[in-house]
């Protein structure tokens, strides 16, 4: 049975290879997204750019660092896999069937099972698993509560009026999709999970400390994604509010600062532990 330092590269190398393959094919194959509406093809093309130049390298980097026994990489690796599971769920269900369908499925399965592996086997080894309630990270919990509630209001402000008027939201008319996959995943899974983690952090629960850097990593990657997609869509001539990119960039910077503070407090918390036991 391979040790845990080897299992992460075993999971990550094929996932990175499949992700790169899907991205390169989408970017370099002429008319690859020709079955999609213009708006959805632009978003798909932009997502391929992000996957190729940010997500796949980050996945490989964190797996290498973990192989070198850098435990700080574990939650970032897990957050990257959560992001990939989220992204390839959208590829699998909302991109028209194409030659990469099986690769999309493999990426979804590998990333999801990698995240489950973190929850079941790596949770107790992740930085934060041995933090005490004294660690001053409760404001991260408050941030999780605020951001989850704000995004609930954002999505509901788009959904509720359309339900009341029995009409189709404008963004769906642009993309030509049956439903908005981002709203589906956020409302049903991501936002409740972020909110729950915030509650756990405020109550000093260890699972909250374990999941906090994972969720922060996911939020950072998602903010960067929205920022890049907004700029790319604007560059491709789509009518889009560029201020969204600015807001997402600010949130990404703020979330990165919180992640750094989290890791800094792991070290300070352990120093306090050792000092108390001298």
Task: Describe, in short, the structure shown.
This protein is mainly α.
What is the element layout, followed by pairings?
Layout lengths: L3 H25 L9 H30 L5 H22 L6 H22 L15 H28 L4 H6 L5 H22 L3 H30 L7 H34 L2
Helix pairs in contact: 1-2, 1-4, 2-3, 2-8, 3-4, 3-8, 5-7, 7-8, 8-9
Please, could you describe this protein's structure?
By secondary structure, the protein is mainly alpha-helical. It has one domain (4-276). It has 9 helices and no strands. Residues 270-278 have low confidence and may be disordered.
Our estimate of the beta-strand percent is under 5%
Q: What's the structural domain tally?
A: 1
Going by helix content, strand content and strand pairing, the class is mainly alpha
List the secondary-structure elements in sequence, H or E.
HHHHHHHHH
The count of strands amounts to 0
Low-pLDDT stretches: 270-278
Q: Tell me the number of helical segments per DSSP (H or I, 4 or more residues long).
A: 9
Helical residues, percent:
over 70%
Q: If you compute it from the alpha carbons, what radius of gyration comes out, rounded to the nearest whole angstrom?
A: 20 Å
Shape: globular
Termini separation? 38 Å
Mean pLDDT: 90
Q: Outline the biggest β-sheet.
A: none
